[in-house]
Amino acid sequence: MKKRYFFMAFMLMLIVLTSGCLSGNFIKKYGTNITEYNLDLTLNDDHTIDGTQVVKYKNTTSKILGEVCFHLYANSFSDVAMNKPVSKLYETKAYPNGFSAGGIDISEVLCANQKCSFALENLDKDILKVTLNSPLYPNDFVNIKMTYKIVIPNVLHRFGYSDSSINLGNFYPIACVFENDGWDKNPYNHNGDPFYSTMANYVVNMTYSSNLILASTGTKKAETKNETATKTTYSANAVRDFAMVLSDKFETLSEKVDGTQINYYFYSDKQSAKSMETAKKALLTFNKKFGKYPYETLAVVETGFLYGGMEYPNLVMISDSLEKYDDYTNTIVHEIAHQWWYGVVGNNQFDYGWLDESLAEYSVVVFYENNPEYEIFRDVCIKNAITSYTLFVDVYKDVFKQVDTSMNRKISEFATEPEYVYAAYVKGMIMFDDIRNLIGDKKFFDSLKNYYKQYGGKNAVPANLIAVFEDTSNRRLKSVFESYLYGSAIIGNVSEKPAN
Ligand SMILES: [Zn+2]
User: In the predicted model, is pLDDT for residue 55 greater than 90?
Assistant: First the structure.
């Protein structure tokens, strides 16, 4: 996600580096013999969805499973949720028409065509635990069919509708990750993107009113349309989530770049051609600097959203309320960078939110220095980030007498949104520039390419990133990374004390 925190300036520094590349067989490698989702959805005029979903779930663990758990993130939008998606600070902006509740009601679950029991867990009933009728052995599959009704709230969020559009992000039941002998059941949080999932294949049938235009993860496979209703089928292989946005106002621009079809959906952007150009250049730049984007499509979607933007596999949401066009450009680039850091290389965004955010934010710097026509310069950008960061730390120290600047915390452990943003985004950007200055450009970009190649299709943890940088540069960098992650680095004039 991209939050608005300050306007960045950047500087040109042309560096010619060879292209790293992720295997062209990415989809085949990571999209074979994995969990499959088949969704059949009907979007009603009253902003509800009737859905059936068959998950052909694969046990990728070494354990015999008696249950499978799913996140029901939609239930965090209920009126009684404890872990709300919107903080007090943003409530008025998020709900312009007053609070509006959303959620998902599961009416039936079948396991291998037999009725099976299910229960809702967590404080906010945001976990669906399905008890299997027979044990699921490692590498075996089970078909879990669920029937549900979704209520979309009137909120400017990743799951919600506005006057202009309907955002469907994190709206359907998605399997929790099983690791360390248990299911990851982290709840929602208003800080960051509290999500964690693994690669799966999707086929999604969506029926909706014919006055709407659909932007989606994946590739359109079929469409039937009459005067009132349209049914569209999208499929996506080896993606870690699936999102859609609908609007009756969408205009579109499309272009094929480096083998990827970019579709730009917009309604109020007065500089749409320029925005499309930015999206194209971002894809080209990151293909060259990090390794090739392995998918056929990328949807860049202007939509109602209270923050700057939000990333999903093959689809990025860009807020229609960004006042400065430069911020709109920044957000396009930041969210597209997430296709590499989050989309292809995944991570637990609840436990290690900084891991993809800091890389996405530093990728914006990389974009500008490789596209000098934007006249945004790397050294100015880093200088501004340091100034802004030290100011934040000073003010926080004054007001709260202390500040925890450690980056490596669960997103729920950050006291405020600014604290999270300055640690994960701003400090993260400064950290990568520092590492780059230490090891030099070639080893820095080789490290990012190796990280992309080694962890593409998988979920990485911070130790993986540090190990790739150390192996590639042949330097001991763990203590440098950790000084940032745990808060003892000296940035600007601020000497930080390690967090307790
Ligand atoms: Zn982000």
Answer: yes
The domains spanning 37-197 and 251-345 adopt the same CATH topology: no
Whole-number Å distance, alpha carbon 77 to ligand 1 midpoint, is 21
Q: What spacing in Å lies between the alpha carbon of 487 and ligand 1's midpoint? A: 21
What does the pLDDT read at residue 495?
54
Q: Show the tokens assigned to 418.
A: 């600014």
Residue 37 is inside which H or E element, if any? Answer: strand 36-43
CA of 474 to the centre of ligand 1 (A): 29
| Cα dihedral 332, 272, 91, 100 sign | negative
- Ligand 1 center from residue 199 Cα (angstroms): 19
Q: Which of 3.30.70.260, 3.40.50.300, 1.10.390.10, 3.40.50.720 is the CATH number of 251-345?
A: 1.10.390.10
Distance between Cα 286 and ligand 1 center (Å): 15
- Ligand 1 centroid distance, CA of 341 (Å): 9
Q: How far is the CA of 313 from the centre of ligand 1 (A)?
A: 13
432-480 pLDDT, tens digit per residue, is 999 999 999 999 999 999 999 999 999 999 999 999 999 999 999 999 9
Q: What are phi and psi of 169, to 5 degrees?
A: -120, 140
In the chain, where are the structural domains located? 37-197, 251-345
- Mean pLDDT, the chain, as a whole number? 93
CA–centroid distance, 111 to ligand 1, in Å, is: 36
Give me the sheet containing 118-121, strands edge to edge.
118-121, 127-136, 65-71, 174-175
Question: Which of 6-20, 42-56, 189-203, 208-222 shows the lowest per-residue confidence on average (mean pLDDT)?
Answer: 6-20
359 CA to middle of ligand 1, Å?
9
144 CA to middle of ligand 1, Å? 32
> Which helix H or strand E contains 468, and what residues bound it?
helix 462-473
Q: CA–CA separation, 26 vs 296, rounded Å?
A: 12
Q: What is the CATH number of domain 37-197?
A: 2.60.40
Ligand 1 centroid vs 108 CA: distance in angstroms?
35
The pLDDT of residue 2 is: 72
